[in-house]
């Protein structure tokens, strides 16, 4: 789960393979994004650049802009030969960010 205090909402992923946006103020889901047929593995965010990153178990990376209330899909990447994503960590730099994905390569 990722909490966005500025937009007063949080983002979750679950077994239904969807990214869900829930309003903290209204306590209801305000947007849903189906993200394919594979289990979602992890979610991370970058507050400086207002980006949300979701990974699934086969190495697909979904990037969203969270600069507004409704996330805007930016990019979808696939990692070839990725068997299972194990985790995600981000390191913010001065003019960008670095994403490290822990996975098993076949």
Give the count of helical stretches. 0
Largest sheet: 4 strands, antiparallel
Beta-strand content estimate: over 45%
Q: Could you name the ranges where pLDDT drops below 50 across 5 or more consecutive residues?
A: none
The shape, in one word, is globular
On the 0 to 100 scale, the average pLDDT is 83
Total number of beta strands = 10
Distance between the termini: 29 Å
Helix content: under 10%
The run of helices and strands is: EEEEEEEEEE
Structural class: mainly beta
Strand order of the largest sheet: 1-2-3-4
Rounded to the nearest angstrom, the radius of gyration is 14 Å
Please sum up the structure shown.
The protein is an all-beta fold and 106 residues long.
Account of the protein in words:
There is one protein chain. With 106 residues, this protein is mostly beta strands. 0% of the residues lie in helices and 63% in strands. It is built from no helices and ten strands. The chain has strands at 2-4, 9-13, 18-23, 28-34, 40-46, 51-56, 60-65, 72-78, 82-92, 97-105. The strands form three sheets. A four-stranded antiparallel β-sheet has the order 1-2-3-4, with no helix packed on it. The chain has a four-stranded antiparallel β-sheet with strand order 5-6-7-8, with no helix packed on it.
Keywords:
four-stranded antiparallel β-sheet, 106 residues, 63% strand, single chain, mainly beta, globular
What topology does this entry show?
Blueprint: E1 2-4, E2 9-13, E3 18-23, E4 28-34, E5 40-46, E6 51-56, E7 60-65, E8 72-78, E9 82-92, E10 97-105
Antiparallel strand pairs: 1-2, 2-3, 3-4, 5-6, 6-7, 7-8, 9-10
């Amino acid at each position: 789960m990722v909490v966005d205090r500025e937009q007063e909402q949080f983002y979750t992923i679950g077994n239904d393979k969807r990214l869900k946006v829930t309003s903290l103020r209204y306590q209801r889901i305000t947007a849903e994004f189906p993200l394919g047929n594979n289990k979602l593995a992890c979610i991370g965010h970058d507050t400086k650049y207002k980006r949300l990153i979701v990974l699934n178990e086969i190495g697909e990376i979904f990037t969203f802009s969270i600069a507004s209330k409704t996330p805007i899909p930016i990019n979808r990447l696939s990692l070839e030969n990725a068997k299972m994503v194990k985790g995600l960590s981000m390191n913010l730099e001065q003019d960008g960010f670095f994403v490290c994905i822990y996975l098993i390569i076949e």
